[in-house]
Amino acid sequence: MRLDYLSIFPGYFDVLGISLLGKAAVNGLVDVYAHDLRDWTHDRHRTVDDTPCGGGAGMVMKPDPWGEAFDEIIGTEPDPSVHVVFPSPSGEPFTQSVAHDLSSVERIVFCCGRYEGIDHRVIDYARSMWTVHEVSLGDYVLNGGEVAALAITEAVVRLVPGFMGNPQSLAEESFSAGQDGLLEYPLFTRPVSWRGLDVPEVLMSGHHGRIAKWRRDESIRLTRERRPDLTDSDVSARH
Ligand SMILES: N#Cc1c(N)n[nH]c1-c1ccc2c(Cl)cn(Cc3cccnc3)c2c1
Q1: Which of 7, 134, 154, 210 sits a CA distance of 20 to 30 A from 186?
Q2: How many structural domains comprise the chain?
Q3: What are phi and psi of 218, to 5 degrees?
Q4: What is the mean pLDDT of the chain?
Q5: Do 6 and 83 fall within a single domain?
Q6: Binding site members for S-adenosyl-L-methionine
């Protein structure tokens, strides 16, 4: 999998050389390339923004640098196998399902904007050439797309076959398909007693059926308490 990042702050992506992602890069599972959008400007100030047409506050990212960067980094021929991700406050929700879909893609280009956003023609042009995902991390406000691109990267790459040491751990996580849309149950490890707090006895019983029931019940309880939006009528009936 090749990952490209276009940003006026390419240093954000230095972190991708650390921990598991660094290991994946070493193992050849993932190739990471960060690019400075200003390398495709031609004026002395390396300008990437301008005032919004129609007025309004803030600045908008000019289309020209993006187009020239696309030409050099991706190419000038349409190729739907290239997936271009635009993090955006007005994007569709980024979900585990989207992460799963992207984990089987060979090439992803992250377009990380700043200011009030990117000239919309950049996204329209990208849609005419590649497979585009305009996604939002959630209902809160970031200053640009870089942090979102990092989060999306981690969510996607950890699903790439061969990346996680124990793929079984993926199956038991919150939001994974195997969890039936439920949140993950509470986790415990040794010591059995810690600062007057004990591991639930059932987890030390060795009775796998009881343990499985306790975990299911806890997942249902937590989901109903914290994420009623995840429990549709069918799921409630099944639980
Ligand atoms: N993904 C996501 C996401 C999220 N969940 N919050 N904020 C963002 C996000 C993503 C991309 C940009 C670009 Cl380009 C510029 N900004 C700053 C901004 C903030 C508020 C309104 N308009 C622009 C971005 C914020």
Answers
A1: 154
A2: 2
A3: -65, -40
A4: 92
A5: yes
A6: 113, 137-142
In ligand 1, which atom is closest to the CA atom of 112?
14
Prediction pTM value: 0.93
Kindly state whether residues 132 and 51 are assigned to the same domain: yes
Ligand 1 cavity residues, CB under 6 Å: 87-89, 91, 113-114, 116-118, 136-138, 140-145, 148
Tell me the best of 141, 146, 150 to mutate to test the pocket of ligand 1, counting ligand atoms within 8 Å of each CB and taking the most. Answer: 141
Averaged pLDDT, 96-112: 98
As a whole number of angstroms, the distance between CA 11 and CA 150 comes to 12
**ipTM surpassing 0.85, yes or no?**
yes
Q: Are 135 and 152 in contact (CB under 8 A)?
A: yes
Which of residues 105, 127, 158 is at a domain's end? 158
How much of the chain, in percent, has pLDDT values that exceed 70?
Answer: 89
Amino acid code (one letter) for 17: G
What pLDDT, on the 0 to 100 scale, is given for residue 231?
A: 81
Q: Of ligand 1's atoms, which has the minimum distance to the CA of residue 116? A: 23
Instruction: Retrieve residue 130's tokens.
Output: 């590649």
Atom 20 (ligand 1): residue with closest C-alpha? 141
> Nearest residue CA, atom 22 of ligand 1?
116
Q: What is the pLDDT of residues 137-176, one digit of tens each?
A: 999 999 999 999 999 999 999 999 888 776 666 766 767 6
Ligand 1 nearest-atom number relative to CA 117? 14
Both 148 and 171 in a single domain?
Answer: no
